[in-house]
Amino acid sequence: MGFKCGLVGLPNAGKSTVFNALTRLGVEASAYPFCTINPHFGIVPLEDGRLDIIREAAGSAKITPTVLEFVDIAGLVKGASKGEGLGNQFLSHIQAVDAIAHVVRCFDDANVSHPYGSPDPERDAEIVETELALKDLDVLERHSAKVRTAARSGNADLARRLEACESLMKRINRRPPGLDGLGDAEQEAVRELNLLSFKPVIFLANTGEAGSAGSAWKDRLEAFAASRQSLCLPFSAKIQAEIAELPEAEQAGFLKTMGIRENGVQMLIQAGNAVLRLITFFTANANEARAWTVPAGTPAAEAAGRVHTDFDRHFIRVEVIPFSVLETHRTLKSLHDLGLVQVHGRDYAVRDGDWVTFRIRK
Ligand SMILES: Nc1nc2c(ncn2[C@@H]2O[C@H](COP(=O)(O)OP(=O)(O)O)[C@@H](O)[C@H]2O)c(=O)[nH]1
Ligand SMILES: [Mg+2]
Predict the structure, then answer these.
(1) 309 shares its domain with 227
(2) Which of 10, 12, 245 to mutate to test the pocket of ligand 1 (most atoms within 8 A of CB)?
(3) Which of 72, 227, 267, 270 is the most exposed place for a label (fewest CB within 10 A)?
(4) Is residue 208 within 6 Å of ligand 1 at its C-beta?
(5) Is 148 within a domain?
(6) 229 lines ligand 1 (CB under 6 A)
């Protein structure tokens, strides 16, 4: 499993269209606000050309890419955290995500209504940010109330937890609140309470069709994203969704005709991996060549535990072929003959592109 990403944004920003482009599921995208009654979940395989080369070297029957999970959430409007619109019930669905993709409308279309008149990237993004922050405050206040009562017994852990919640409540008014400088107790509370404002955000400027009025709005959103220390990706949701409908062989040609250089879906996924500091490692046998996603710096024994829960405990060593080495030599035999297969212990930090074979005590 790669990461889980929740799409947020005002109604009609293009979230469902982005979701369709991502997952090709064809969930309903409608010009009416609040059309999205239920959150939609979708799975996207991460394309990775390295997997084909590893499969070839290992003689695997099939490849299994890592998948990312996307959640399409109904539009948030002012007051969503207090139950305005259909917002509040859906906020709970994004609490389980690793990252947030914040879709901001940067397209002009008289046929698509805007909940506050017309697009205004900074204002629109701030409304959504504020609702997420208010939701977190609500969660923190409820939690603090519980902890405060329990802490009267004089338990030091609970007192620390209460202090952490109070400092987070103050911090939440920063943009972005960020994790920098947070103590252990605070980080733990952020994780446990699944606070939204602290999750990494990627802004998606839904720029609409080429040549529309969107580019000035996109520039403004870029500056806004920079002020939040976040990335901003241009994403022509409608065009990308149309491309996703095409047979794969025709997609590249269509992208070229539209003057779009990259597949927006893969671009978003790569940005997500970078923001979340995730790396991909590979395993391969006769049955399958498979990609796995873990946080950078994950020790080999823990990575092994991802592959099979028993592997962590029974770990002996890991044999590693860095992808760059495989790319040069291509065959397993030449790698072994040249002594290029590395051997590491359980603390080895797995690196992006490593093809690993775990040796396990039977
Ligand atoms: N012109 C134009 N319309 C778009 C674009 N992206 C989405 N829309 C339209 O805007 C409406 C709302 O989109 P939707 O994805 O349902 O927005 P959501 O409420 O954020 O989920 C739909 O009619 C879409 O077809 C775009 O890039 N250009
Ligand atoms: Mg929608």
Answers:
(1) no
(2) 12
(3) 227
(4) yes
(5) yes
(6) no
